[in-house]
Fold these 2 entries.
Entry 1:
Amino acid sequence: MADETVDHCWYDIRKFGVEGKGWSDTELFYDRLPARAKGVVRDAVWNLSRHCAGISARFETDATAIRARWRLRDAELATTKFSACGKSGLDLYARDDAGTWRWAGCPTEIKSREPEDVLIDQLEPVLRQFMLYLPLYNPVDEVFIGVPEGASVTPIVPRSEKPIVFYGTSILHGACASRPGMTQAAILGRRLNRPVINLGFSGNGTMEPEVADLLAELDPVIYVLDALPNMQAP
């Protein structure tokens, strides 16, 4: 484990810039729908849009260890079907020399709304690219990464190419993935080397016109629609 006596420098990932947001005019930074959607979409959709599923930040560091601390808004950290890591945790990936994203680490335990944990340690001090996924089913107010003093940290600017936009049900939202990086949207994003926007709304992906109007504001390379499991014939 990382040496707890080492002093750490902490970085707010909001200052890095994040991927996975379709709109910048959100009420809270990590929301998935714009502020003007409040009162337009159903309350259930709006509340679920505050979950930060699919949002990620990328950075480069030569740190020998990476810690994280984050503040959650919902007190329910896990359920009988959904692990705390998937519902409320972070998920760290590293890019290897061949350009493939490899899983690097996640929290070992989450027992409060303000967790802090080592994500990975015992690394050689060489520059690597990392990608950090945010919780799937719990809104966050802030997320920080910490590295030992003296280590360099450089944000990787969010990609400008057109994203893949996913819209659908809990299957897309992330239930009940073991880790945030294990949703189908996140996996495809890594394999295709494309930014993705996850607009899965658990139990509420019903193709309603108000949400369709918002989707039409985006300019993706392709839409992936998987709302059928939530839709019923009249």
Entry 2:
Amino acid sequence: MKRRLLSASLVLLMAAPLWADTTVMHVAGHCSPWRGGYNASPSHAWLTNWPNANADGVLAEFSRADLLSAINSEITAAGGWDAKLVVTQVEWINTQPPADLAPVAVSVDVDPSTLVWLSSSAFDAGGGSWRFDGSSYPNFVAAVNAGVSAGKSHVVTGAPWQPVWKPVGVEPISGVDYWNVELDVPEYLIVHYLNNPNAVGLFFGAEKSNGYIQIYGNDQWGRVGDIRVVIKSPPTTAPWLNASVLTINETIALTNPTMSVPVTVTNAGSGTIAWTAAAAPAVSWLSLGGASGGH
């Protein structure tokens, strides 16, 4: 019998040397940008209007192996990790992204049976209505909300974000003027995606309701302008919670189905921090020996 648990974040406190950020781009061809609600876009997405029915954005699949490799490398070097979702504004719009953009990030669990990459829109999964757990929904947001209620999708709003003008040495798009929109997502969003094999991808949208921002999509510039995940070292100038275990994947004998796994929680930054832990979802075969603490 296999039992798997992913904690909300990671791991051991170590001295943090300088370490290069790792950019994990989406799986080639597995990207669906849409704009204007109904319009699947061949090249660009709009970020606007979440959580309304016609919310635009971009959905893409990411390799779990690549994400986990980047996370483990950062842990080894820096003792922890930080995750950002990044998108790039198209080059002919040279104004700074609006202050009221309010980005949204989602780990998306929907039925893949009708999901057609490069063809999906807010109202159609490309091969029919958006579906979750065998049921049809009138739009993408409704299908995501059904997944959230079941604990299968996860939505992040209100996370810190910043516009970055032509970051030097990060994005290999030469001769192009652009802004990056960098959303500092909770690491649990990435862990949630890693922990759910039925999650089809990560979505980047925005709550902005008056106007929109237009971004690259659909393998633009070899995917470096599309939605991507950046794994980097955690900050050391603020409290930063790490746990010593990211995954547990064990085979347990049915005749004696008992095991324990120690998890060390540390503050990888400065100051003090209080923490609590809980099983999500709560199951009868899993218990926590200590569910709170402070450092």
